[in-house]
Amino acid sequence: MSTSPAALAPSDSEAPAALVERLARAGRTAQRAVARLSDAAKADALRAAAAALRVDAPKILAANARDVAAGEANGLTGAMLDRLRLNPDRLESIAAAVDQVAALPDPVGAVIDTATRPNGLVLSRVRVPIGLIGIIYESRPNVTADAAALCLRSGNAVLLRGGTEAVHSNRAIHAALVQGLCSAGVPAEAVQLMPTQDRAAVGAMLTAAGLIDMIVPRGGKSLVARVQADARVPVLAHLDGICHTFIHAAADPAMAQAIALNAKLRRTGICGAMETLLLDATFPASGAVLGALLDSGCELRGDARACALDSRILPATANDWDTEYLEAILSVAVVDGLDAALAHIAAHSSAHTDAIVTADPDAAERFLAEVDSAIVMVNASTQFADGGEFGLGAEIGIATGRLHARGPVALEGLTTYKWQVRGSGQVRP
Question: What is the pLDDT of residues 16-71, one digit of tens each?
Fold first, then answer.
């Protein structure tokens, strides 16, 4: 097992499928070593990786500046540039997240439950790593560190394939991480970054059944759709973050305005940003909420009743209710009470995050019970839909499916379980 990633560079003649197979086999070998590491050893390795990120901050920021300049020249959207751009504070947050993951309890080996059968067999379900996880992502250099930390802490190895727009940032972050991990005795192959941007390598990852155990895509709708359509490996993903906030008739006006502004405008390019605002027809301060959003530079696209509240609101089209804008644009509808809000959310939500603002506990509990999204909130900004905010240290992504994991996927979501059966000589009649 090497302590340097240099041997993993592709040769000029190496086909993408052969490259992925070689990296995957190296990763699977490294994962067996990682799975044997103690809780303390994994934590120490991650703290060393966080320290290396801080030491290499000037190199990482210089590499990121190259990516941002190229992105601006190539016409990346504001949302993509926001996700791409690093500064000293953001980079420190990335390093701090690695430290936070190091401090989290190790899920590996945790006993989920036990039972004793009438014949004396003792059954236990115990958490174990998934294996080798492939992460395919766009314009998010923080994913390089988050994925590495979460996968290592949960006993997994990871094969990363970042987007071309962040190639220099990803390589600089990866180099620092590997340096730190190797200094603590972790094999370099436990955290690998695809050394080519050839799109055929993505296809090879998606079809590497038996080598890669799970794929996690993080990026735009077209990337995630392609992954879900082409993968022969299990996928953990969400397509869109079409998040709703419903301001109920019993909402406190000041709270409603503060939540609406934060949910939409704190960071418009994240998947937890509100994309549709629903206003109860009898809420008395709708005009003030909409005016505050407009005055803050947010473009509003509304139904007829919303447009009647402020002449600056543009008419919404049918597509607006199903659009993840990821910028300062918001669709707005006026609805007749909780039933109508629930119906709108059921028809248009992407099952990511939906919220209600209300002082009515019965309305709040009904909303929590009936909205079938991965995250459902009461009196809080949808921008809290984040693994760090949930106390998970970091997240690999937000899962909106119904199998294996939902919501922010962190350490527990990167494990599976096995049955351990302890007997005393029993044979089956």
Answer: 999 999 999 999 999 999 999 999 999 999 999 999 999 999 999 999 999 999 99
Whether residue 121 sits in one domain with residue 25: yes
At residue 99's C-alpha, the angle toward residues 98 and 104, to 5°, is: 95
CB-based contact 156:28 (threshold 8 Å): no
Quickly count: other Cβ atoms within 10 Å of residue 376's Cβ: 18
Indicate the pairing of strand 122-129 with strand 415-422. Answer: antiparallel
- Residues 155 and 273 reside in one and the same domain: no
pLDDT tens, position by position, 81-134 = 988 999 999 999 999 999 999 999 999 999 999 999 999 999 999 999 999 999
In the block, tokens 């939540």 appear at 259
CA quadruple 357, 355, 282, 261: dihedral positive or negative? positive
Q: Please report, for the domain that includes residue 251, its CATH number.
A: 3.40.309.10
Sign of torsion over alpha carbons 334, 338, 341, 347:
negative
- The model carries a pTM of 0.85
39: tokens are 């809780």
Q: What is the 3-state secondary structure (H, E, C) of 24-49?
A: HHHHHHHHHHHHCCCHHHHHHHHHHH
| In-domain check, residue 428 | no
Mean of the per-residue pLDDT values of the chain:
94
For the chain, the residue count is: 429
Give me the DSSP letters along 347-400. HH--SSEEEEE-S-HHHHHHHHHH--SSEEEESS-GGG-STTTTTSS--SEEE-
pLDDT band at residue 340 using 50, 70 and 90 as cut-offs:
very high
Q: Is residue 427 part of a domain?
A: no
Q: Among candidates 305, 313, 311, 261, which has minimal Cα distance to 283? A: 305
> CB of 242 within 8 A of CB of 348?
yes
| Residue appearing with tokens 């966080």 | 50
Q: Which range marks the domain in which residue 119 is found? A: 5-236+396-420
Q: Is residue 212 part of a domain?
A: yes
Asked if the structure places residue 45 within a domain, the reply is: yes
Domain count, the chain: 2
| 251 and 206 within one domain | no
Could you tell me if 142 and 265 lie in one domain?
Answer: no
Task: Count how many Cα atoms sit within 13 Å of the Cα of residue 72 in the half-sphere of its side chain.
Answer: 7
203-241, pLDDT tens digit by residue?
999 999 999 999 999 877 788 889 989 999 999 877 789
